[in-house]
Design brief:
Length: 387
């Protein structure tokens, strides 16, 4: 490994036809090349998926190591093989896949998880193809049962559809590609991939986290949809994140240069900690000609008994999300959450903005009603004062 070349390895386990390669492609947002390899002359053949990306002047290669047929091995073979694989590859994490239509043998999963735990390897247990059967909850429950046995001292916490066991393991469900059931006329969009990527990231130590983010550097959906959570993770104001994402050649290099990463005591950015430069340069003219407001719709002001109030928006195009988030921050939002809309249109996003100032929230709401009910044009002018 040279100074300008970095390598990372990830283990992916599970039976055939559970969607492992599809999950890998969804994580990286591109189709990875597949080859066969052997770590040494005595080991069984293993599938190898490689992804190479160039970030700035650094070439980063990630290899996903898939272990076909491991489900039929005995305990000694599984433990010996996993130990050898971990020692040879030093993986960022291990991802185990099982789908509702293909049950995992829980003993085999437990052996794999146990070996990873002894080597301090993060385990992500994933129910893939979640819409392909009605037994997805049973798959998740089985995963949790294993982790409760391996980590009896850890109380699991559920957040954004992911069950976290501190920073050592997690359980979740995903659908890597669009699911279509022609017989029943059911269509489900991809779901859970971005949350899985983020969940793995915040469980990893700093160096492994950076390597993981370089692995998904070409996944534009992740960087835009999860922008608010990434700002919280890196403790970066929205305006700085937006500027880096749009203009910095080495986006990850600049982003990873900020002071501290996530820890269990991290709190959400408060309005007083968001530094906005009033003299900052305007966005390029090619962007300012686009109408930000015509692509968004306010849904409601949710009722809340707490001191923090919220506005809900639907955004018709993901392409405008970064600018929309930036505008909300400048209007005084203390927290912004982006998530996929429940509607079948994959381009639509649901944006929730929190405000501590009721008057500001109501003023934004009233102004929004005006611009959506009438044709309003607005430009910035300099009003020169004369004697």
């Amino acid at each position: 490994m040279t100074e300008n070349f970095n390598e990372s390895n990830i283990l992916i386990c599970g039976s055939s036809r559970v969607g492992k390669s599809t999950l890998i492609n969804a994580i990286c947002q591109k189709e990875l090349s597949k080859s066969n390899a052997s770590l040494n002359s005595r080991t069984k053949t293993i599938n190898r998926y490689s992804s190479r990306t160039v970030v700035g002047h650094i070439t980063h290669e990630t290899t996903f190591w898939d272990t076909p047929g491991i489900e039929s091995w005995n305990e000694n073979d599984v433990r010996t093989y996993m130990t050898s694989l971990i020692e040879k590859t030093h993986p960022l994490c291990m991802i185990y896949c099982a789908s509702p239509g293909s049950f995992a043998i829980l003993d085999h999963v437990a052996w794999i998880v146990s070996e990873c735990h002894q080597k301090n390897i993060l385990c992500a247990l994933v129910c893939t193809n979640m819409w392909s059967g009605c037994n997805r909850k049973s798959v998740v429950d089985g995963f949790c049962k294993i982790l409760n046995t391996v980590h009896p001292q850890i109380k699991p916490i559920k957040e954004d559809g992911i069950i976290y066991y501190d920073r050592v393991a997690l359980v979740t469900m995903v659908n890597s590609t669009q699911y279509v059931d022609e017989d029943f006329g059911v269509t489900k969009p991809p779901l859970g991939i971005n949350e899985l990527i983020f969940g793995i990231a915040k469980c990893l130590e700093r160096d492994f986290m950076i390597a993981w983010f370089r692995t998904v550097s070409e996944n534009q959906s992740f960087w835009t949809t999860m922008s608010s959570k990434l700002c919280d993770l890196f403790k970066v104001p929205y305006d700085k994140f937006n500027s880096l994402y749009q203009h910095a050649e080495n986006f990850l290099g600049f982003l990873c240069g900020f002071s501290e990463f996530y820890d269990e005591n991290t709190t959400l950015l408060e309005q007083s900690t968001i530094n906005i430069d009033p003299n900052a340069a305007l966005l390029p003219q090619t962007l300012t000609n686009e109408s930000l407001f015509y692509d968004a719709e306010m849904i409601e002001i949710p009722n809340s008994s707490s001191c923090t109030k919220q506005l809900l928006f639907t955004l018709k195009s993901k392409d405008m999300m970064m600018r929309f988030n930036d505008a909300l921050v400048q209007l005084g939002a203390s927290k912004i959450q982006n998530c996929q809309s429940d509607e079948t249109d994959e381009e639509k996003l649901l944006i929730k903005a929190e405000f501590h100032d009721d008057e500001r929230l109501n003023a934004i709401y009233d102004f929004w009603q005006v611009i959506n009910q009438t044709e309003v044009n607005c430009i910035i002018v300099n009003d020169s004062c004369t004697d």
